[in-house]
Amino acid sequence: ENQAIAVMAGKPVLHYSDCRGRMEAVRWLLAAAGVEFEEKFLKTRDDLERLRNDGSLMFQQVPMVEIDGMKLVQTRAILNYIATKYNLYGKDMKERAIIDMYTEGLMDLDEMVLHQPYLPKEEKEGNLAKIKDKSRNRYFPAYEKVLKSHGQDYLVGNKLSRADVYLVKLLYHVEELDPSVLANFPLLKALRTRVSNLPTVKKFLQPGSQRKPLEDEKCVEEVMKAYI
Fold first, then answer.
1. What is the pLDDT of residues 26-73, one digit of tens each?
2. Where are any strands of DSSP class E within 26-181?
3. pTM over the 0.90 mark
4. How many CB atoms lie within 10 A of CB 146?
5. Rounded Cα–Cα distance for residues 218 and 18 (Å)
6. 62 touches 115 (CB < 8 A)
7. Distance of alpha carbon 168 from alpha carbon 185, whole angstroms
8. Which Gene Ontology molecular function entries are recorded, alphabetically (predicted)?
């Protein structure tokens, strides 16, 4: 019923588990754009099967977002649409290409971060070491260098874009895994503060918002129940 009301009111409806996973980047982007959204959590295998059976999932997978009369799947497609709709995708083709390049780089790191809670115990330590190493030595230096090269407030065109939002989301997440990771990146710290202080993001970072906490064992169990 709430879902029907949300769709009628034009609010996007997010279909996923009550955990971060691949939907967290979508939550961050909608929140940064100041867009209210509803969430329909998949708690059991039946919830997922229902969506599959009614034809809502083109590839039988979530995330799925109902927005503007569409049932969008595939995280990149969802993020591209939201970024375009809410003017978080640069001013021209060149800026858009650079935003895509920066975002794709972040997705490579995010993959490792997203898998961490779901790995077998014996693989967790090795993956965490890899996250720390790649963050410190490959990915974060690249974005620090970009900010240093142009001296502007944001990564592209001196205006907030989906790349900034994704980067800040990831900075918070990696910091939860390794609190010292940003020690040598003053410009990334400044970007995180700048984006965090935007009224829409500030609201999203408050307790009680739709931002999800770091996955714990209970969350991992719930996901396994719904998807495996």
1. 999 999 999 999 999 998 889 999 999 999 999 989 999 999 999 999
2. 38-41, 64-67, 70-73
3. yes
4. 19
5. 11
6. no
7. 13
8. glutathione transferase activity
Phi/psi region, residue 62 (left: phi>0; alpha: psi -120 to 50; beta: rest), is beta
Asked whether the predicted pLDDT for residue 7 surpasses 60, the reply is no
Question: What is the β-pairing status of strands 38-41 and 13-16?
Answer: parallel
Say how far apart CA 67 and CA 77 lie, in whole Å. 12
Q: Residue 191 carries which side chain, given as an amino acid letter? A: L
| Host H or E run for residue 171 | helix 162-177
In whole angstroms, give the CA distance from residue 5 to residue 125: 45
Question: DSSP 3-state assignment of 13?
Answer: strand
Q: pLDDT at residue 2 above 90? A: no
Q: By C-alpha distance, which of 164, 173, 168 is closest to 131?
A: 173
For every residue of 77-106, DSSP letters joined together read HHHHHHHHHTT-S-SSHHHHHHHHHHHHHH
Tell me what the pLDDT averaged over the chain comes to: 93
Secondary-structure percent of the chain, ordered helix, strand, coil, rounded to 5: 60, 5, 30
With H, G, I as helix, E, B as strand and everything else as coil, classify residue 71: strand
Please answer whether residues 27 and 14 qualify as being in contact, where contact means their C-beta atoms are separated by less than 8 angstroms. Answer: yes
- Say whether pLDDT at 150 is over 80: yes
The one-letter amino acid code at 126 reads: G
Q: From CA 167, how far away is CA 189, in angstroms rounded? A: 11
Sign of the dihedral defined by the CA atoms of residues 102, 166, 2, 18, in that order:
positive
Specify the pLDDT at position 228: 62
70-73/38-41 β-pairing: unpaired
